[in-house]
Structures are given as C-alpha cells and as structure tokens.
Amino acid sequence: MSHDTADPTPRAPAGDAPLTPSRLAADVQLLAPALVMTPRGPMEGYAAVVADGSFLAVGPAARLEREHPGLTPVRLPGHVLMPGFVDAHHHLTQSFGSALAFGEPSEIFSRVWVPLEGALDEESAHVAAKLAALESLRGGFTTVADAGTRAPVDVDALASATTGAGIRCVLGLVCNDADGTTRADRAAVLAAAEKHLTRYAGADLVHPSLAVSVPEAATADTLRDTARLAAEAGAVVQVHVNEHLAAVERSLVRHGLRPLEYLREVGALGPQLLAAHATLVTPAELTLLADTGTAVSYNPVASAWKGNAVAPATTMAERGIRFGLGTDGTRGDAFRLAEAAEFAQRLAYGLATGDSSCGAGWSWLDRGGAGGADAVGLGALTGRIAAGAAADFLLVDVSGPEMRASWDLPWELVRRGNRDQITAVFTAGRLRMWRGRAVGWDDSALVERAAELAAEVVGRARVTRVHPTSTRARAGSAVR
C-alpha cells in the first residue's frame, strides 16, 4: 500500500530487542522498517533482503519472510529505509578551507582554492579528503563525485581516503592541458587519463572519472578526446560550465560562443559529460543539454553562497535534462541540500510564476538519489531501493516530533528532515555510520589530525580574501 495518510511509526512490539549496530552487522539480513522508500514512493509493510553488498530482494515483508525462512527479520519500527544521497559535485581536498569562501564574491577559485590545494602534500590531501567523506556520510551521502583536485599528489590519496571512510566515490582526474601547461603535454595528459580509467578495475567503492576545470583549461582536441575516452569506458567527464558571468564572457571573447555552445562545437557534449552548475543557461543551451543527453549537477547552496544565478532545475526536469544535486563542497548535509534545491527554485522561479509546488517534494529526493546516480554515471548501480541495486541506503528515524504525525513523507523529508534523524548509513551493504559516528575506525582522531594539518596548510597557502572575516566585519561595524 502506498503511503498517503497512514501513521508511519508503529510502536515496537513487546520483546523486540533494542536496535544496536551489532544487529545490523550481518552479511545477509532481512530489514523490516516501518516504510521503504521505493522508486514508486514510500511503501508500508515492505522489507529488503541485503546480501553480498546488494539488495537481493525488496517487497512485501510477509512474502520476503516466507521466502527467506532462515533469516530473522530485523524490525525497525519508526524508521524509513531510503536510498543514500548522491553528491553529484564535490571538491574533497577543499575541506580545510570551507569557511574561507564565506562572504566572498564569485570566481574565488584563483584566490582561495588553487593556493589552498597547492599547499597540500600527500598526508594533508588524504586527511582533507577523508574529513570531507566523514562529513558526507554523517549527512546521509553514500556517494560523492569529486571533480578533480589541483593538489600536487597522486589521486590515490583520495581513493584510499574515501575507501577508508566507507563512501562510494566517483574520482575525477584533472586533464587540463591549456591551464599553465604547454600543448606539448597533451599526449601525457591523455595517457594519464587512459591509465586512470583502468586503474581501479575491480574496486568496490572507487569509480574513475575524468575532469577539466573549465572549458578554457583544455585544448579543443583534449576536450574532444577526454569525452571519447570517458564514453568508451562508461565513465563521465566533469567540467565546470556556465557557473559565473566572468566565465561566460571569457568564452564569448575567446571563441565567440557560450561555454555549452563551444563544447558542442568541439564534440564534447553527450551523455558522458557532467556539466557542473549550468546556472547561466539560455533557452538554446537548454536545448543542447536535452538533445545531447548531457547531465548537470544542480548546486543550489553554491548559488546562494557565491553564485550569480540559480540553475533552472524545474525547467530542466520538464525538458527531460538529466541532473542530480551537488554540494560543491559547501556542506555535507543531504537533507539541507534537498531543501535548498526546492527553496532556490521557489525563490528564483516559483514566486514569479505562482508555482507553489516547485517539484512537489518528491522531485528533490529523486534527484538527490536516482537522478544523481544517473548524472555521475552510476545509474545502473546505486540510488534506489530495488533488487539488484547496490545496498547504499539510510535508516532514518521518523518517530520524532517533526514527523510523528505524518501526512506527506517525501515533502516532510525535504523540508523538515535533518541529519540528526539518520540512525545508520550503509554503503555496499556494510554499516558505515551509526548515529553520526563512524563504524570500524576512529573518526575523532581524524578530526583532531585534520585540525592540526588545516592550520599548517592554510598558514602556508597564499589565500586572498576580498571581504573580512565575520569577527573583523563586526569589529569594524558602526553597530555594536
């Protein structure tokens, strides 16, 4: 039965054991929550069998219990089992400097991120990436797409960090050959790209990707060839596109074309391209995205913090454009990201048109899960609760005051959900996070080491801020 007005949080029957991490540690288990968030919506009386890192079966609990008599059901009253969120655009090695971008205008990459990442070494890059992965897991993400680091280290430092944390990672390798390097390096760039695409064959949680920082950071030949290599490997190329006015104007001056038009001209558009941001898009560019099957990462928090515009995501959905939700490394909180996705559409477009729904709630859960998985090239693997899909999921407590009287769970999760409601996070069928703490490794020690290294890295990075910190701004204000 689909969930309309029924109370989703039945009380635990007498005799049920308390829910503990040990009860969720079996390699094969039958999970019976109050609700399962299926591709058709939330379903009561459903259960899921997890085995070998995947969902073996999803369906009515009574049927699954009959079909698997050897499994003792793990009753999860008051919980919804839902897909883990997919962060379709992250910068894992920027975690030491997140607050450096607060209150800053757009185009901060050259003043903040390039010097910060350039100051990282092997250890600090690893720790920064693992810190970002920890925050993402705590916030309900089971997959992150890293758009490529500028740190002068082997990207395996990031792969080992995300694997150690237990999060699935689409790992970008930067393939710039017109950004401070010479055209003679193109052969080496493409050789490194081919090696990267095969390097993690057989890896459970690492999925290689290629990346170009912005279209002008690579030659036309390299943009075309990275697109070809990624398409042949079933991977994606991540490119920041149409994010800021300055970037659009640079493209017009250099090529006489807007960024997406230029990518079309050189043969880089297509299902293998993940266009980050796409906030400044014309109707013609929307048609290019729709006609070529190009995917977009819609990053609403980044628009609020440092953007020039909000991507027209509801229009993209109507046009059949593939897109997921991305944090851009702002904050690893999936429910707040879903809320921001809807909220930004409401303010930027809904108020002007009288659209009070702006995606009807369910859209943002879908784009945060299955849509995001599709955008980053993992649509066949993750993002949904269904037989055959990877067991990347959350157990979310909906028994608290925010949702105890439940009338429309998808809307409630978007507008009222919080990461403190996440009881457990699983990737590849393994419990990775329990009530906000890592399982199987010392997250406290990582946070302490990250604080030490962050001070050192920021201290030697030549970061330039335009605006003062909030403390200095307050001290200089006429209002005391």
Automatic annotation (TrEMBL):
Domain Amidohydrolase-related: 80-429
Pfam families recorded: Amidohydro_1
Keyword set, alphabetical order: Hydrolase
Gene3D superfamilies linked: Metal-dependent hydrolases, Urease, subunit C, domain 1
Organism: Streptomyces katrae
Residues covered by region (Disordered): 1-20
Record-given protein name: Amidohydrolase family protein
